[in-house]
C-alpha cells in the first residue's frame, strides 16, 4: 500500500506557511475598496455642494483608494512578518496603516499655489488730537469758582 498520497502532519513536518505577500496583496485590494467607498461618499457631498468639479472628485477618489490599499497592504505585510497575535496584531495593523497613509498623503497631497505677498498701501496717520481748551463760560464766575481757580494756581 502506497501512503505517499496522504500527508500526515508530524513533528518533523512544520505546517505550510502562506507567503506574506499573497495575503498582503489580498488585504490591499480590500483596503482599496473600503478606501474608495469612504472617499466617494465624502467627494459626492462636496460635488453636490459645488465645492469641487467631477474631475477633481474622481482624482480624489482614486488617490484615496490607492493610499488606503497601500496602507493596508503594508500593515498586513509588516504584522505578518512579525507574527504578532491578539491585541498586538490589531495595534500593529493600526499603527503601521496609519503611518503609511500619513506618509502617502504627505507625499501626494495636492499642492496649492504659493501666496504672493502684496504690500499694503501706505495709510496716512491721522494728526494727533490736541486737548481742547475749556470753553469760556458766558455766566459770571461765582465766588466758588473763583476760589477753586485760585487753589489750582
Helix tally? 4
Structural class: mainly alpha
This entry's quaternary arrangement is single chain
Q: Sheet bearing the most strands, described?
A: none
Any low-confidence stretches, pLDDT <50, length ≥5? none
| Mean pLDDT value | 79
Give the overall form: elongated
As a percent range, the share of strand residues is under 5%
Q: Can you count the beta strands?
A: 0
Estimated radius of gyration: 38 Å
Helix content: 55-70%
- Helix/strand order, N-terminal first: HHHH
- Terminus-to-terminus distance: 134 Å
Report on the architecture of this protein.
Helix 1 (20-49) runs antiparallel to helix 2 (54-82) and helix 2 packs antiparallel against helix 3. The chain has a domain at 20-108. With 153 residues, it is mainly α. The protein has helices at 20-49, 54-82, 87-108, 143-152. Helix content is 59%, strand content 0%. The model has no long low-confidence stretch (mean pLDDT 79).
Draw up the topology in text:
Blueprint: H1 20-49, H2 54-82, H3 87-108, H4 143-152
Features:
153 residues; mainly alpha; elongated; MamC
Structure at a glance:
The protein is an all-alpha fold and 153 residues long. It is 59% helix and 0% strand. The chain has a domain at 20-108.
Amino acid at each position: 500500500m502506497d501512503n505517499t498520497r496522504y500527508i500526515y502532519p508530524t513533528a518533523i513536518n512544520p505546517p505550510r506557511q502562506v507567503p506574506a505577500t499573497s495575503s498582503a496583496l489580498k488585504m490591499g485590494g480590500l483596503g482599496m475598496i473600503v478606501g474608495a467607498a469612504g472617499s466617494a461618499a465624502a467627494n459626492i457631498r462636496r460635488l453636490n455642494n459645488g465645492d469641487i468639479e467631477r474631475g477633481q472628485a474622481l482624482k480624489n477618489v482614486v488617490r484615496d483608494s490607492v493610499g488606503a490599499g497601500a496602507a493596508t497592504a503594508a500593515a498586513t505585510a509588516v504584522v505578518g512578518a512579525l507574527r504578532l497575535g491578539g491585541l498586538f496584531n490589531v495595534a500593529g495593523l493600526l499603527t503601521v496603516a496609519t503611518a503609511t497613509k500619513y506618509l502617502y498623503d504627505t507625499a501626494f497631497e495636492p499642492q496649492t499655489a504659493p501666496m504672493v505677498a502684496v504690500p499694503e498701501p501706505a495709510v496716512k496717520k491721522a494728526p494727533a488730537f490736541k486737548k481742547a481748551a475749556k470753553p469760556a463760560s458766558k455766566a459770571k464766575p461765582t465766588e466758588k469758582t473763583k476760589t477753586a481757580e485760585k487753589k489750582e494756581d
